[in-house]
Amino acid sequence: VQLQASGGGLVQAGGSLRLACTASDGTFRRSTVAWFRQAPGNERAFVAGSGWNRGDTFYADSVRGRFTISRDDAKTTVYLQMNSLKPEDTAIYYCAAKVSSGNYAFKPSYRSWGQGTQVTVSS
Length: 123
Fold this sequence. Notes:
The chain is 0% helix and 47% strand. It has 123 residues and is mostly beta strands. The strands form two sheets. Strands 2, 4, 5, 6, 9, 10 and 11 form a seven-stranded mixed β-sheet that branches. A hairpin with a 6-residue loop joins β5 and β6.
């Protein structure tokens, strides 16, 4: 399945952005979906994940309490609401999906990846 990430942009520190991830087959109904990010010179790192069967969510320590991952009712889009943004949140954000559950932060377990959307937070 092809994923499409959108919603990135330039924002001042303390501001908010909402990223969206959609799937070419129109549904994430039975998929675990996660957001990762990659800053220049760094490896791609886990940000947040959403399970499909119990609505579980899981966050990296660096974003817990500021970011929220959610799905729309029709399970067609997964969002990442980012509040209280900091300059260190600057990165390209990627969404990823898999059919297995759990193990949200393990990159190799994800079969589908979006193209990434740039988030830049100015100080």
